[in-house]
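Reply to dn_fold:

You asked what the input looked like. This is it:
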Amino acid sequence: MYKSYEMDLAGRKLVVDINRVGKQANGCAFMHYGDTTVLSTATASEKPRDGIDFFPLSVEYEEKMYAVGKIPGGFNKREGKASENAILTSRVIDRPMRPLFPKDYRNDVTLNNMVMSVDPECRPELVAMLGASIATCISDIPFDGPCAMTQVGMIDGELVINPTQEQWKVGDLNLTVASTKYKVIMIEAGANQVPEDKMLEAIFEAHKVNQKVIEFIDGIVAECGKEKFTYKSYAVPEELFEDIKTVIPPEQMEEAVFTDDKQTR
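and this is what came back:
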């Protein structure tokens, strides 16, 4: 059944529609933040490809000209490759989410975020980040979420949670913080000579907002979440670990890894 959930996020309404569209995907969240709309889907293959020895996760952030009311014309009537901003946004979504998938999981997973419309007051990159997390959490794909992301700007020394596009461009701080309910798992920042205590304050403030979003996501998962499917494990055999320990004792490895001097290490 189609369900809609909403919360107040930094003074604007975040609305998540579940089972409205994308019903063939493992998980789908139709995200609205102000007038910004993003369709986020999570899909996974039924079984891993033969001979694969890594987790094949693909994250896509699709910008379309129509989202800002433009239609390509003239010589180029079709849209070209992904922009630099789209590539960087995909990476920012990938970085905190990838470690939350099981280490022994080898099925192909694709997280797709298509921007449908853009409100300059609500940055679509942030909406896509949250949408990817929600879509994966409610899906049947194994995932140790939820995680949430918050952006922080700074105007005239004052922190701004989830700043507008204009505030993001002219502010002295561009900070993105991703968290689980237990800890901060990713920080990406650019700043114009921001004091260390102000940066720490911004990180803690973002983490606090993330906890509210995670609580919101937990409520959605409790009502709409699918049971996670079982998968073929590709964990390293325990016997191999035991064999390695006979060659390199754990105490010796720990001493080597945590030695400060590089040459000694």
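DSSP finds six helices and ten strands in the chain.
Hope that clears it up.
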